[in-house]
Amino acid sequence: MSGADQDWEEQSPERLYVITGGRSGASGHTTSLDLVTLIVSKAGPKPGMQPEQASIMRLCHSPLSVAELSAYLQLPISVVTVLLGDLLADGRVVARAPVPPAQLPDRALIEAVIHGLQKL
């Protein structure tokens, strides 16, 4: 089998269908996952786990975003979110929202600080 045929096989719709069990969402888990949601595994993979889920467990010993997992696993985001949903439902991983952007301080406060510094 040539390299091009092998690449097609790895990303074929049939393979992705098998990985997700034909589902487009996780069974029994409603947490919304976006591209920047951080995933951390609670333990290592268990024997008999689906290979892709075991890879997620190994990769997430330190926090990784859903987008990073998709890139490392070379799987579409939609497939990764199904796998993560199952792991979340089983309590094997934790999803954490990224740190929100800092709020800008009040403009009046900034002006008061500038005026105070100018008087020094």
Automatic annotation (TrEMBL):
Q: Name one Pfam family in it.
A: DUF742
Q: Where is the organism placed in the taxonomic lineage, from the top? A: Bacteria, Bacillati, Actinomycetota, Actinomycetes, Kitasatosporales
User: PANTHER family this protein is in?
Assistant: DUF742 DOMAIN-CONTAINING PROTEIN
Alphabetical list of InterPro entries matching this protein: DUF742
Q: Which domain of life is it from?
A: Bacteria
Q: What is this protein called?
A: DUF742 domain-containing protein
